[in-house]
Design brief:
single chain; mainly alpha; two-stranded parallel ribbon; flat
């Protein structure tokens, strides 16, 4: 927000809309986000290495599924795939739910923002 001279709300929208797409906004948002993504990738690598060291008898980490609001950022999975030795993909929290047909009314770019609300709704039967 500071680097773009935007309030927090507008900076969040810009982050989601532009993300890591260098064709949008001349790649300004991507350039701002890249150092943070590299830090995140380093932390993910450290966590995977720790897990595999402590649980060497377990299956190797083969994939990371991104969820939540930040997973809506354009090209974040692709950029993380470039930085990590593990497959990254965006998750769909509704994949295994019988309500999936009704959930398809939620736009795909917003679907990752609702799992908590859905989980709470499912608890009320």
């Amino acid at each position: 927000a500071k680097k773009l001279d935007l309030d927090f709300s507008k900076a969040e929208k810009a982050k989601i809309i532009c993300g890591f797409d260098s064709r949008i906004g001349k790649g300004v948002i991507k350039k701002i986000l890249e150092p943070e993504l590299k830090k995140l990738a380093t932390k993910i690598t450290e966590s995977i290495n720790f897990y595999q060291r402590e649980h060497s008898d377990q299956k190797k980490v083969e994939k990371i599924i991104l969820t939540g609001g930040v997973s809506r950022m354009k090209k974040i999975a692709e950029e993380l795939n470039k930085l990590l030795d593990v497959k990254i993909e965006n998750g769909n929290p509704y994949t295994n739910l019988p309500l999936l047909n009704k959930m398809q009314k939620i736009p795909q770019n917003k679907i990752s923002s609702y799992p908590t609300a859905l989980g709470l709704a499912l608890r009320i039967k």
